[in-house]
Each structure stands twice: as C-alpha cells, then as structure tokens.
Amino acid sequence: MSVDVNAPAWHGQRWAARTALAAAALAVLLPLGYGGLRGVLLLAAGLAGGAVTAAAVWWTLTRRGPARWLAAVLAAVTPTVVVVLFVVTLGWVLVLSPVLWAVAVWSGRYALRSTGKRPRRMKEHRARSVRRPFLLMNPRSGGGKVERFGLREKAERLGARVVLLDPDEQQDVTALARAAVADGADLLGVAGGDGTQALVAAVAAEHDLPFLVVCAGTRNHFAMDLGLDRADPAACLDALTDGVELRVDLGFAADHPFVNNASFGAYAAVVQSPAYRDDKIGTTLELLPDLLTRRHGARLTARIDATTLDGPQAVLVSNNAYRTDDPVGLGRRERLDSGLLGILGVKVDSAAEAAALLLDPDPEGLAVLSAREVVVDADRPEIEVGVDGEALVLPTPVHCRIVPGALRVHVPRKRPGVPEAQPRLNWRQLRKLAATAGRA
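Given the sequence above, the corresponding structure tokens read:
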C-alpha cells in the first residue's frame, strides 16, 4: 500500500493520524488502568452482556408465551446492569473514555480524508428544458403533504399538468403514465411514496424521458439518496425550471421495477398479512417465531455469481449498495449509478449465532455482496416479495437485475446533496501515516 502525502498537507495529516492512535490507545487503556483487575473483568462483563442481550433478543423473536416475556425482560435488564456496573466502577473515566474515542474517530477520518481517496460523486448533466411535464400526486401520501405544501398549485404555476390520484379508488399509475406519454408528455414525475415512484420511473426509463421525484412520501429513501430536501417537498419542483440531470440505475425483481430494494424472506412474509397494516408490532411478533425457525415460510436460496446463500431467513436486494461499515451511514447509499445491486443476506439459527452478529466483526450469518444479477429461489412455486414497500407474490425463481443509467432524474440545481461518506477507519494505514515523512 502506498500513501501519497502532499507537502502542504503532510504535517496536518501526520499529526491527525498520531492523535487518532494516541486517543484510541488512551480510550482503551484508561478504563483498564483505572479499574485494574476490575477493569479487565468489567470489559469481559461488557462483552458477555452484549452476547446475552443479543441472545435474549433472538429468544424474544422466536418464542411465544412466558418464554418470550422472560427473554424480553432479560434483553432489557442485561444492558442496564452492565451500564450500572460501568458507572459504579469507572465513574468519571466512563465519561472521558468515550470522549477520547470520539477524538480518535474524528482525527483518524480527517487523516484518511487527506489522502485524496474520496468517493466519486454522481455526475451532473445539463437538463434540457421541458414543455409538457406530467405529474402524478397522491394526496394521502406522507400524511397529506401534497396539500400541506401546496404541491399541485406550484407545479401548475410552473407549467405542469397534474393528476391527483383518487385515494378511494385503485388506479393503475403505470397506465396513467403511459397515457401521458402518448399525449405528448416530455417529463414524468411523482409526488408520493417510493413504490409509486418506481412504477412511473420504469415508464420514464422505457421512453427515455426525464423523471422528477417530489418527496411527498413517508420515508422518501430514494429522494434522500438523490440529495433532495425531504423537509421541503415543494423545493423538488424547482427542477422544472432550474435543474440538472442525474443518470441513475433502476432495479427489477422479475418485471417489477424498484428504486430502493426488493426484500425476500421473513419481512416480506410479514407484510403480506392483512392484519399488518392495523397492528404492525403485534402481527410481526405473532408471525416471526414460525418464520425465523422455519416452521412456516419458504426456504430461500440466493445465487449471486459464484456464491450461493443457502437458507437465509432474509435477503435484501437493493438498487446500489447500502452502507454497512458506518453506523451513521446505515440505510444510505453513497451513489445510485454504480451499475451493481447490493445484496444483504441474514442467516441465524441459534442464540449463539445471533450473538455473533453483534460481536463478530465478520459474522458468518451476514453476507454482504454486490452483483449485476441475483436469482432468489425457494422450495415452493411462489414467494412473498416486498418491492419498495409494496407486498407482492411472485413465481419462483425471481430474477433480480439492474439496468445501469436507465433513469434520467431531474433534480434542483440547489439542493442539500448527499453527505460525503466518511472513510472507514483503517488503523494499519493510520500507523503508516503517523510514521511517514513523505511517501510510505
């Protein structure tokens, strides 16, 4: 490994790496030194407490009746007891040690950012002007954001034709989008949830038309990863007059498009239940024991290139990969134009394996992969699939694929943007940076 250090940045980079290493060492050694033998025992108790908590959560999800409630109490009490032990034993050190660790993380990331190895951002293209934009708006989406933010009125002032979906009638948004294209629309847009976004996006991609995202849904994951202002859906409409174009990928599960992900396994089976909409927690707790222990539900097999995942309880196939190496960045995608699907597979068959998911930095039960295609098969002719939050049942095997650069998304020129991903802490590289005096 080689590390290039520019002369002007060399001193700051080297001292940031040294600060990170020193602060990390102090954060670990201070509690051990202050507590002595008790500090060592406390560290062991903390690790054991984490394992017991993870195992108790597993028992809570896979048991019913009194055993479930006892496991739930254990899952709540164990971390509380561990925290109390830390507070009583370490006192002021318990405050100082996390502060030192925060300094180590900040300094280490600063030093690694200085290496110039920044992730490549999505390229912006000039957006051609549109004359006949067409927008579908769901008035109930996001608790009524269409009316609350005056989205219809602003869109029409900017020259768009707006169609409000009827909340009391099941409408085919794909057919509405196709009809708009036949009528001469030169841009398609949606103010609604991610599931509706995906259906209209597929029509836009099919006809090579620009697509407009108005974040009027509940979570708006796609809008978040496009860098849009989710707190102000009306600002998304500025792309009609002052926008840029992003070329992003589009995923498909069989013939069903998705802008975020397609989920298979336990979660996909739970959301199929008619009772889920009215009682999410109760329905989940009722169904998970049989699904996680494989007494009910399909046994999945996922094939990703030369890798086969046999019997995972859950498989998540995403349009570009989600971050998994940084707690702050969980649930976010650094980019939407890598041309690769992200694949997360989870297989846990015991409390010990549940504990390993928490404590093992590279657990066997968690698969993190990427590929252009994924085939999800099962031991039955049909399986439940959640496609961008929409509950579907599809014939097996389900072929998931990605179409690189299929979607021309128009976004406002002025927008918050996607936060830059923090570099993963690499202690070996930090040691080299701390010792180097030019090029190591």
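Confidence is low (pLDDT under 50) at residues 1-5. Try to locate this feature in the token string yourself.
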